[in-house]
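FORM 12-B: Structure-to-Sequence Request
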């Protein structure tokens, strides 16, 4: 007797009819139960659309929560480690992390301050029970709205030109991590200058029933600008170039792990700039203050590796002849635009200071034969890809 395979991608996003029509590879995976494409035609071509023209990625499966109420500002500020009260006003977006009582990261995500006392929190994981537990005693309403809103990421040097063609008046004045609301097809279209590629880009948020009109209008506006739908393979390559973290890759959510020592604090993920001890209260504050005094166990590193053999899942060593590793690579790729072999990783303190030389144990296969090499790598401080156009206001027309 055989058991039928379980379809983990039964849910379809509001954009699925357009995505399915473009699909030539039939390589879909499950993103929180929704069908999400690895690639549609060719991952390399889709990657170059991000860097050279314009790429569209379906963000709809991202978990979304609406936070409202008289205490919404206080609640959001206490929830995360960064200062949300004084530095993220209405019309702004903040990247943030939230921790458990031990100061270990539960998840990261973006918080959109839509209007006074109204926020949207977007994350990788589901957090509704925990979010509501953290709101006890506050006048706050928290509602999941993942299925209510469709979202697209429009990324690349031509993204601004396409939105101008779409007729979004004033889009040229939208600054990095800003958001604005526009009228579209009888509903409200929210556009934020955010993204996961490290390039000039925007994210578009709209009622689910208006998703297809938005898609059609966007691709009409971008038909002369090389607009192309992309899958997760191209997005993953670009986010590594930008040095961005990914849950379950660079860190494990603290409420999901079974063994101790497998989680990371904001300091251990290179996110100390997100921890504001001027705030009187936030989840994990006491534990993070102790770590600040006593030191961390791990350090997040960006590596520029010699050669062109990708260092996926490789161990990191302090010396070429060392027998014990000091850490491991979490993400790796060859960067076509940077012409570099790059990686993100985690190493034990005190290793991994900027400018330090380490060695990465790389295994690669050629013609059925596995080879091993100890590749020299330099720890670098800046993202591998961070073009001036990402911040330029107004962006240039391409």
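FORM 12-B RESPONSE
SEQUENCE OUT:
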């Amino acid at each position: 007797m055989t058991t039928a395979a379980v379809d983990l991608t039964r849910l379809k996003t509001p954009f699925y009819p357009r995505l399915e029509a473009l699909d030539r590879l039939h390589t879909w995976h499950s993103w929180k139960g929704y069908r999400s494409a690895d690639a549609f035609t060719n991952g390399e071509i889709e990657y170059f659309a991000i860097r050279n023209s314009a790429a569209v990625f379906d963000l709809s499966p991202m978990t979304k929560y609406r936070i409202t109420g008289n205490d919404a500002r206080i609640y959001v500020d206490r929830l995360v480690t960064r200062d949300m009260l004084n530095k993220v006003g209405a019309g702004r977006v903040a990247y943030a992390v939230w921790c458990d009582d031990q100061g270990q990261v539960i998840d990261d995500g973006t918080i959109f301050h839509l209007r006074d006392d109204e926020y949207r929190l977007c994350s990788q994981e589901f957090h509704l029970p925990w979010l509501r537990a953290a709101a006890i005693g506050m006048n706050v309403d928290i509602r999941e709205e993942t299925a209510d809103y469709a979202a697209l990421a429009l990324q690349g040097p031509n993204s601004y030109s396409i939105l101008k063609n779409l007729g979004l008046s004033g889009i040229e004045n939208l600054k990095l991590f800003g958001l604005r609301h526009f009228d579209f097809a009888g509903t409200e279209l929210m556009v934020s200058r955010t993204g996961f590629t490290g390039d000039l880009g925007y994210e578009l948020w709209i009622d689910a029933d208006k998703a297809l009109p938005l898609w059609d209008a966007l691709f009409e506006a971008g038909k002369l600008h090389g607009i192309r739908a992309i899958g997760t393979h191209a997005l993953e390559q670009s986010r590594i170039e930008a040095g961005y973290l990914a849950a379950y890759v660079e860190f494990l959510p603290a409420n999901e792990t079974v063994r101790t020592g497998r989680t990371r604090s904001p300091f251990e993920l290179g996110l100390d700039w997100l921890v504001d001890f001027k705030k009187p209260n936030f989840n994990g504050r006491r534990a993070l203050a102790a770590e600040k005094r006593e030191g961390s166990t791990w350090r997040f590193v960006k590596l520029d590796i010699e050669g062109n053999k990708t260092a996926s899942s490789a161990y990191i060593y302090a010396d070429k002849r060392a027998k014990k590793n000091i850490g491991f690579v979490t993400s790796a790729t060859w960067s076509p635009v940077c012409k570099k072999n790059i990686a993100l990783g985690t190493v034990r303190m005190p290793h991994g200071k900027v400018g330090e030389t380490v060695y990465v144990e790389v295994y690669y296969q050629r013609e059925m034969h596995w080879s091993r090499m100890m590749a020299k790598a330099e720890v670098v401080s800046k993202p591998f890809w961070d073009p001036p156009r990402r911040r330029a206001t107004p962006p240039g027309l391409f």
